[in-house]
Every structure is written in structure tokens, then in C-alpha cells.
Amino acid sequence: MRLRLLARMAEDVRMRSGVVDAEAWLTFDTESTRLLREIIAAHGWPGRSLVGEDGATAAWLLAQHSPDLAFQRGVLDVLQAQPEGEVAPEHAAYLHDRICVREGRPQRYGTQVQPDGTPFPLEPGDVDARRASVGLEPLAVYLGRFQR
After folding, report:
1. Is residue 99 within 8 Å of 53, Cβ to Cβ?
2. pLDDT above 80: residue 148
3. Mean pLDDT of all residues belonging to the chain
4. What's phi and psi for 53, nearest 5 deg?
């Protein structure tokens, strides 16, 4: 299972580092969602104790890129219900923000960035405190990676 997840993540990263092909991405992401659904149905969430740190990261990345919003919501619920140490807190933060942006709501942690390098709208309050609570660097540092 771990090796399947890692191979899928490697292909995901490879595809997204080339020319944008929305149709190919949708096909790939739909198949990744199907695979992840099968794994979750058979084994539960593939957390650190089941597939290791890298396998858990791969599972999260595939969920993050899922075209199925209802699936992403369900995964977020599962991630938030995991025992401490099974899931990287930043994974739930990224998925939370992805869902918010897809639903047209302000994001909480500022992980989702527009093509111009600015974050999608944020919830009011201290975003850096929220980011720190899940192990993320300050927003300005993160956004610095997107400057052209």
C-alpha cells in the first residue's frame, strides 16, 4: 500500500511540474481518489503507523488534489479524528483551506495562493498564530516562495 501511494504521489508531482493539462490532471486525480477510497475502505486512513511518514504524506497529497469536494470533506473529518501523531497537523490545515477556497469561503491558514502569489481571502484574526498552531511558518515567509 505504501509503495502504491508513493508511486502515485511521484506521478502527481511529475505531472504538475510540466505543462498544465487540465484534462489529464482530472483523469489522474479521479483515479487517485478511487484508489484512496479503496484504501480507506479496507484499512482506514493510511496514517503514519500504517504507511510511514512518506506514505501518509502521499495519501494526503492525493486527497488534496481530489476533484471530489465531498470526498475531501470526508477526508478532513477523518484526518481530524486521528490520534495525535498519526497525521501531520499541517496536512489537515492545507486540506481545510483547499475546501474553503473551493466553497468560496475565507481560508483559515493561508495555504492556498492565487496565481499572482497572494493568498485567497483569509478569515479575520491572527493568521500567523493559527499557522503556528499547526506547525506552519509565518504567512510572509510562505508567500515569499511564490514571489516571481
Report:
1. no
2. no
3. 96
4. -60, -45
